[in-house]
Write a structure and sequence with these properties.
Chains A, B: It comes from Falsiroseomonas bella. Chains A, B: Pfam families: HD_3. Chains A, B: InterPro entries: HD_domain (IPR006674), YfbR/HDDC2 (IPR039356). Chains A, B: One of its GO terms (cellular component) is cytoplasm. The structure is a homodimer. Chain A is mostly helical. The first copy, chain A, has a two-stranded antiparallel ribbon. In chain A, β1 and β2 form a beta hairpin. In chain A, α2 runs antiparallel to α3 and α6 packs across α7. Chain A starts with a helix and ends in a 9-residue tail after the last helix. Chains A and B meet through α1, α2, α3, α6 and α7 of A and α1, α2, α3, α7 and α8 of B.
């Protein structure tokens, strides 16, 4: 590796460090019982752990290395674009455009071959058309939903009703029976805990 | 997946969530310029990103899925045992014993087959004898060292001199030329920034 290539990788990693400061809506509860927002770096690790635990549970699992690589890369554009709350409808409308502009900035920090590799992982995840991307998407959404349940529900505070979550969670449930079973159990717990807001009339 | 298996996986993931509250010594600097300790969940994602960027730079790279799985699992015992600062000599002496006891607790929360799989990944990382484990170790140590540099050096505040870091960093440097080049560059930056404490006479 040439000195320039080393310097570019260090520079990119310093930029990627910002993902530890991008807050998501889901909460994590510390040993003192206090809840704080989860950040996107923690989320990325947690999604990898979900993928690792569920990978052996699906028929014809996609290649694990490819799935975990996509998961490690899937939120990098947020260091420029920030996180978009899945239930903020106005913000979601501009998300693709904002993230594309962010990708142009973020991946350009890497040497071209590495930047192209990372960008291809991010694009595959976003397009969601391969089996690996669908598996990664289901892990991503299941983790976000789980975080809502173990963080004792940010939905009620945010005014998010159960039906508002279906558009996001139904595609994940359809990826494989294990996601259907896991997400159904999480819905049961969220309902039992009164974690959703009442649907708007 | 049976309901019991689903419940065990959810229970394990709720326990794993604690990794987001295990503080390491390295620091990360937020957009407001304030530094805080990095946590072990963020670290695990960051190590995966380092592995992804460097995997193509080594001759005969180990299988990426296996490396990334090991990285996702390598710090899970810290939810029971906490993080051990690499330069706290007394604490390091008891680390293996404390982490083994923690592993008995943590991995027992999973169904036996999944627990055995996760434990095997952790043990392979700890033993450091396979090519995949050595690659993962080098990524782990390079990331920790990088965090020291981009967090503007916790070593000085902790009284850690440059020679005290050699025992930890030399094995990583030897794994492949790319690690030697990356870590040498990080040492140059740490020295230029005056980030190490003076060696004790």
């Amino acid at each position: 590796m040439t000195p320039d290539r080393i310097a570019a990788v260090i520079d990119f990693l310093a930029l990627a460090d910002r993902l530890k400061h991008v807050e998501r809506r889901g909460r994590t509860v510390g040993p003192d019982g206090a809840a704080r927002q989860e950040n996107s770096a923690e989320h990325c690790w947690n999604v990898a752990l979900v993928a690792l635990l569920l990978h052996g549970e699906v028929a014809d699992p996609p290649e694990l290395g490819h799935v975990l690589a996509m998961i490690a890369a899937h939120d990098l554009v947020e260091v420029e674009a920030g996180d978009t709350f899945a239930y903020d409808e106005a913000h979601v409308l501009t998300q693709a455009e904002r993230e594309k502009a962010a990708a142009d900035v973020v991946f350009a920090r890497l040497p071209p071959d590495l930047g192209a590799r990372m960008r291809a992982l991010w694009e595959e995840f976003e397009e969601g058309e391969t089996a690996a991307a669908r598996f990664a998407m289901a892990c991503d959404r299941a983790q976000g939903f789980l975080q809502g349940v173990i963080g004792t529900g940010h939905w009620r505070a945010e005014g998010v009703s159960e039906p508002q979550t279906y558009g996001r969670m139904d595609p994940a449930r359809k990826v494989a029976p294990v996601f259907e079973a896991l997400i159904a159990t999480l819905y049961e717990r969220a309902r039992a805990g009164g974690m959703f807001a009442e649907p708007r009339p």
